[in-house]
Prior knowledge:
By secondary structure, chain A is mostly helical. In chain A, 80% of the residues lie in helices and 0% in strands.
Amino acid sequence: MTARIVHIASNTFREAVRDRVLYNLIAFALLLSGSAILVGQISIEIERLVVINLGLTAVSLFGIVIAIFIGIGLVSKEIEKRTLYTVLSRPVRRWEFIVGKFFGLAGTLVVNTFFMAIGVFGALLYVAHKLTSSDATILIALYFIVLEFLIICALALLFSSFSTPLLSAVFAFSLFVIGSFAEDLRGFAGMAHGLTRWLATGAAYAVPNFSAFNVINLVAHGHAPSSQLILQNTLYALFYAGMALSGAVLIFERRNLK
Amino acid sequence: MPAIEILGLEKTYMVGFWRKRPKRALYPLSLKVEEGEIFGFLGPNGAGKTTTLKLLMGLVFPTAGSAKILGRDWNDPEVKAQLGFLPEQPYFYDHLTAHELLNYYGQLSGVPAKDRKRRIDEVLTRVGLTDVKGVQLRKFSKGMLQRAGIAQAILHDPKLVFFDEPMSGLDPLGRRDVRDLMEQLKHEGKTVFFSTHILSDAEALCDRVAIIYKGELRGVGAVEDLTSTVQGKIEVIWHGTQIPASLKALGAECHISGDTIRAVLAENQQDAAIDALRREHLRLIALTPLRTSLEAYFVEKLQRAETSAGTMAGKSMGGTV
Lengths: 258, 321
């Protein structure tokens, strides 16, 4: 069972890598290095702040785009191209296929993030000439970004299990945008009354709360997120991704592959 | 023990915007395929052949019915380790090379790592893809993809192989290779179940065939039995370029092809025909009872199905007036 999931995950990873996804990292690293030099020249005293903000935001956005772009096609492309037929006619269970796909995409994003993080630290080193112990907090921000990716991967898979790639992309990206303002939505729900309050509260807790994962500004100022937030975000991401993945499995288990 | 035992398998799709309109893709189908035989599943395009195969592979779920494969419940995952499947017009992960593809499928089928490389090399040789094993599948032609598809279906040495239109996309040489391969599989004791609409392939290969049309089974039996209907006529072939007048007088339908002539005439005129050839000193090549071809049987079944559908429609219309 575990072996089959690993084989499906590694094939998904290999497919993503050969799909030239990693090439955008090189472009990204070059872009970041170039902008770091520029930033170093125009923003005196706050170079570090700008580089961390710019770098981590780019890591997050690029990763989200990659997660959605690859994730939405993970299942639908396999059905459309009928590659799934030869996989599921073997002793592979449908849930193993979904879980394997998830880990394959998550692995791709972790590797992407690793290389992009090297770009961020490289740029930081270039403008600040040295790395300090407080820069280690950047790793926590990167960890939160990876947690965000896990949720997006699972959501993209969920939508991909029943919808077309285009609609899946719209759903996943919309949820990312709404989820980034989840705290505001909760605030709005608190101020509303009656049915609106119920609906807004329901929506605020149903969408993924990505705003809790955004600690870029905090670490850019040299502050470390609390260990409680780290634990809370870890559990939340695992729970949310797990739920979305379970939904994908439940749908896919019943789907006719016409 | 039958290799496949289909028990009232049925599939109805709900179509339309609200998915409320039923569309029957397969009427209750019951069928047995014995171990070690080559079984042809024949029907025109859209007859329900692929639906049946998808049901057996667990790719679509039945509305009713079940099946036993190799004596076990068809949903038993372990059964799938004993099956090979080539889908119609296969398309594979085009980022992989042929070798990588087979390695991946070998892993999923549970072929032990120590045997995998040997098996991959064996099947690549068998389907004639050894020279291109390092080439990515995106560069493969349709025929090469079909060969790769056959390779993945037999890689794990399955007991039962399902081929959906295995000859499609192949040139005459490729078709001959696939026919040879299917015969080899039979000699190895494997059961081959293949769907096709190319009747000559089925006639040449199959021990038994089933005919499906508009989702309904129309006939099943041994090819010899289905084609053994003697039409009360004989076929006489002799060496020559001229048709003797005495044979013409017997009412023979004659066809000249190069330096041989083929005549079809009533069975009771067999002796008269031989006498006529002797008198003219012509060399007899063959004299055989005229049998129904599989194609004729197939067409007749389809026409009968059409007529029956027309009659039913007529009755139904008559009832509503």
